[in-house]
Every structure is written in C-alpha cells, then in structure tokens.
Amino acid sequence: YRECYEQHAEKLMRILVRILRNHAWAEEILQDTFIAAFRSIARFRGEVSLSSWLARIATNRAYNAIRDESRRKRNLPPLLDEVVPGFEPRVEGRDLVRKVIGILDQMDPSKKLALLLQAEGYSVAEIAEICVEPRGTILARLSRSRAELSLRMAQAGLISEELPSSVEDRS
Fold it and tell me: Are 12 and 55 in contact (CB under 8 A)?
C-alpha cells in the first residue's frame, strides 16, 4: 500500500489542489481516495490503469465534496457564511494565476477536469478512462475547452494573441 501511495499521491494531490483550491481539503480528499481504493481493491479489474482508476476516485470525491460544501453553505445563516481569508503562498504572477483559475472555475466542470488532467500529463486515453467517456468525446472536449479558455483569456486581456475566426464565432 505504501508503494502505491508513494507512486500516485503527488500527482493526485496536484489534481485535487487544482480542483479544490484548498491544500488542506485536498489532503483530506487524497486520504479518502486511498482509503476508498484500498477498501475496494478487489473490484479493480485492471481494465484501466491503476493511475486512471485512482484519479477517477479522487475526482469523484473532490466534486462530491464541492457539492456537499455548496449545500452546507446554502443552509448556513448569512453571517456564518462569510469567507475567512487563509494563508496564501507567494506566487510570482499571483494575479494572473487568480484570473486563470477564475476563468477555469467559470467553465463547465467536465471541461475544467479534462484540461486539468491533460495539464497533469494524462493521455487522452487515460482521461477517457477517468471520465468514463469515449476517446473521441474527450478529444472534442479538450479542443473545445482549449478554444474556450483561449477566448475567455483574450476577453479578460490575459493574452493578446489574435484568435482564429472559428473560435471567435462560437461565442
């Protein structure tokens, strides 16, 4: 179990931090992911890679946690729902990072997930396994997601590239 954790935890943690944008919460979901995986290892049939299987568990748990937190916040009285600023590490270009994250957060979760997984180095085939969707669907989603991200970044003034007319026509 330790070898499996050591081999996959760092990559899963990067994905979870990008989805959740909270390191402590990502650590908690990472631990839940491995506990769930180890409890259900007998059901792992090897039809997908272990890495893809773990990523699927992690992303499902992350999105479930986001939904649960959203429900919890809706049920809190307004005064208790205030955001408490937390520690924020120093990042060069922090403003740019915030803006790009804000753009990603506005995108459809399936598009955001596909982009994050690709940024983590997962192949299209692995992303298809994680998302339980056909490879062609993932290829199309990645293409549309990159185009949408570029368009939104251009609209926000984050990039100055001229966009192809086919991308501009979609907005």
Answer: yes
Cβ atoms 16, 26 nearer than 8 A: yes
* CA terminus-to-terminus distance, the chain: 48
Neighbours of 57 (CB within 10 A): 20
Q: Could you tell me the pTM of the whole model?
A: 0.63
Q: Reduced to 3 states, what is the DSSP secondary structure of residue 1?
A: coil
CA-angle at 67, arms to 58 and 91, nearest 5°: 65
Whole-angstrom distance, CA of residue 138 vs CA of residue 19: 18
| Whole-angstrom distance, CA of residue 118 vs CA of residue 135 | 13
Amino acid in the structure at residue 87 = F
Helix (H) or strand (E) holding 32: helix 23-39
Instruction: pLDDT tens for the chain, 171 residues: list them.
Output: 889 999 999 999 999 999 998 999 999 999 999 999 999 999 888 888 999 999 999 999 999 888 888 777 666 544 434 443 444 444 446 777 788 888 988 999 899 999 999 988 899 999 999 988 999 999 999 999 999 999 998 888 888 765 454 444 444
